[in-house]
Amino acid sequence: xxxxxxxxxxxxxxxxxxxxxxxxxxxxxxxxxxxxxxxxxxxxxxxxxxxxxxxxxxxxxxxxxxxxxxxx
Length: 72
Fold this sequence. Notes:
1 helix, mainly alpha
């Protein structure tokens, strides 16, 4: 009888430990997902900025070519 009680208490203690670990892992997963979303947003923003800069460079090159033709 005493050993069954001891085993039950040990199992309950292990269960609490596992629940704490599970909760910590779920919190870590949530943070990682939030970080991933933030990184993805930043990547998209940088990609848009890169495209805008490329467009500006292309426009500047065209203007420079036109200017060269005007003065030739």
